[in-house]
C-alpha cells in the first residue's frame, strides 16, 4: 500500500506561524507534525509516501529529503500554480499512488484499484495505528471518524453498521471526519482532472455515502486538528 500526506494548504488560520513555515512543518515537542506521520507510516509497513506541496513547498524536501531517515521513500507532488485543495491534489498525485508495476505484472483493471491511505498533514495523532482494515470490494473509501471537537460540534457523518452515511434516525450521533481515509483510485474518476476542489464533505463524498459505497469506523487513538496557534500551543504543553 502507498500513502499520501496532504501538505499543500496555506494555513490561513495558523497565521502568523504559517507566514514563514508550512503548517505540516510546525513542531510539537521539537518534531514537525509531518515527521510524526512518516514515522507512523513506517511502523505500518508503508514505505512509499507521496507529499503534495504548494505554499513554501521548497521547505519540504529541504527538511525531509528523500525520506530515508524515516525509513520511507518520499515522492513529492508540486502544485506550482497554487494549491489544488484536497481532491485536486490527490488527482494530480494519482500516478504516484498507483503501483504501475502491479498493473504491468497483473494486466488487470483491479490492479490499478488498490486502495491507498491519505492523511491530512495538519493533524496530530497521540497513538499508533496497529493495522489497517481491508477495504471491501464494493467500497470506494473507508473513513476514520472522531468524536466532535469544539470547533465542529455538529459533526459530519453518521456511522451505521460499518457504513458512513449522511442521514439517520433522530437522536443518533454524528461524528467528525478525521482527515484520514483509504481511497480507491476509482473514487476520483468522476471528478475533474487537476482542478482546485475540496474532498472533505464535498458532493462526491456525500453522493457515495448515500450509495453506501463508503465504510468507516471511529478512530481509537487520540486526534487533534492543529488548526490554530492556540491548539498547537496546547499540544506542546500536553503531548507525551
TrEMBL record:
<feature type="domain" description="Nucleotidyl transferase">
    <location>
        <begin position="3"/>
        <end position="236"/>
    </location>
</feature>
<dbReference type="GO" id="GO:0016779">
    <property type="term" value="F:nucleotidyltransferase activity"/>
</dbReference>
<dbReference type="InterPro" id="IPR050065">
    <property type="entry name" value="GlmU-like"/>
</dbReference>
<dbReference type="Pfam" id="PF00483">
    <property type="entry name" value="NTP_transferase"/>
</dbReference>
<protein>
    <submittedName>
        <fullName>Nucleotidyltransferase family protein</fullName>
    </submittedName>
</protein>
<dbReference type="InterPro" id="IPR029044">
    <property type="entry name" value="Nucleotide-diphossugar_trans"/>
</dbReference>
<keyword id="KW-0548">Nucleotidyltransferase</keyword>
<dbReference type="InterPro" id="IPR005835">
    <property type="entry name" value="NTP_transferase_dom"/>
</dbReference>
<dbReference type="InterPro" id="IPR054790">
    <property type="entry name" value="MurU"/>
</dbReference>
<keyword id="KW-0808">Transferase</keyword>
